[in-house]
Design brief:
The protein has a five-stranded mixed β-barrel with strand order 1-3-4-6-5. The chain starts with a strand and ends in a 6-residue tail after the last strand. The protein is globular and about 55 Å long. Helix content is 7%, strand content 49%. The chain is mainly β. Strand 3 (24-37) and strand 4 form a beta hairpin. It has a domain at 4-99: OB fold (Dihydrolipoamide Acetyltransferase, E2P). Residues 114-132 have low confidence and may be disordered.
Length: 141
């Protein structure tokens, strides 16, 4: 199984590109904060950064509704990318291929975000504190 769920803040403006076919690719990173206490009771705050790649309509929607500093919940799969750099050194990194996203910030805190809550077609949101998950390049508006 290759599935990861992460909630964090977008660290810089989303970079979006369009292929000659017209399909979009968006790249961004999110910061995830972890707080814990050492044995001596000292509080420690740790931030981990994750690179995210989105494709197609999902990429376009992420770019439309989120910006630097926005809180986002994502579900995706891990993918190792490899390449050769300018010095002919082999490089690799693991990225999260975005499959679905969730609005975490309140709708009125992001001017581009929808002003009402939408339910994903495949699920019913029972709790007003949950936000819908958008999947399969479908946004119901």
């Amino acid at each position: 199984m290759n599935n990861v769920n992460v909630i964090g803040r977008i660290g810089k403006e989303i970079e979006i590109k369009f292929l000659t076919s017209g399909s979009a690719i968006a790249n961004f990173s999110i910061a995830v904060n972890q707080d814990y206490k050492k044995q001596d009771g000292t509080k420690v705050e740790k931030t981990s950064w994750f690179d995210i790649t989105a494709f197609g309509k999902t990429a376009e929607n992420v770019n439309k509704f989120f910006k630097k500093g926005s809180m986002i919940g994502i579900t995706g799969e891990l993918e190792q990318q490899t390449w050769t750099d300018n010095n002919q050194q082999n490089r690799s990194k693991v990225v999260i291929k975005l499959q679905s996203f969730t609005f975490i910030d309140k709708a009125n805190s992001n001017n581009n975000a929808p002003q009402q809550q939408y339910n994903a077609p495949q699920q019913q949101v029972q709790n007003n504190h949950q936000m819908p998950v958008y999947d399969n390049d479908e946004i119901p508006f």
